[in-house]
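Duplicate of #3305? Posting structure anyway:
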């Protein structure tokens, strides 16, 4: 999990999408998050994490529902929610931390 520490300890906000390939809501978020990343450019990062391939991290963060979206900035969790959101809502959330 030291790699995860490196990912969250940055000055720009980082949005993590904890998803599962078998979950329809998770799959619906793929295009939304692509739009978010394109809109924000280098002002934020968007990182997708497959819970089935990262079980230890998912358990450590108590990921139970999909998708689970978490925003970190400078190593601190700033926001967390389970369930799908639209691109404009996510962009607005990330811009609060830029």
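Output from current build:
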């Amino acid at each position: 999990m030291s790699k995860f520490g490196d990912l969250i300890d940055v000055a720009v906000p980082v949005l993590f999408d904890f998803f599962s390939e078998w979950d329809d809501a998770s799959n619906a978020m793929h295009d939304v998050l692509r739009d978010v990343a394109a809109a924000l450019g280098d002002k934020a990062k968007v990182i997708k994490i497959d819970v089935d391939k990262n079980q230890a991290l998912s358990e450590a963060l108590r990921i139970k529902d999909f998708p689970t979206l978490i925003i970190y900035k400078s190593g601190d969790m700033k926001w967390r929610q389970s369930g799908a959101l639209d691109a404009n809502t996510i962009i607005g959330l990330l811009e609060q931390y830029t």
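Confirmed duplicate; merging threads. The chain has four helices and four strands. The chain has a mean pLDDT of 95.
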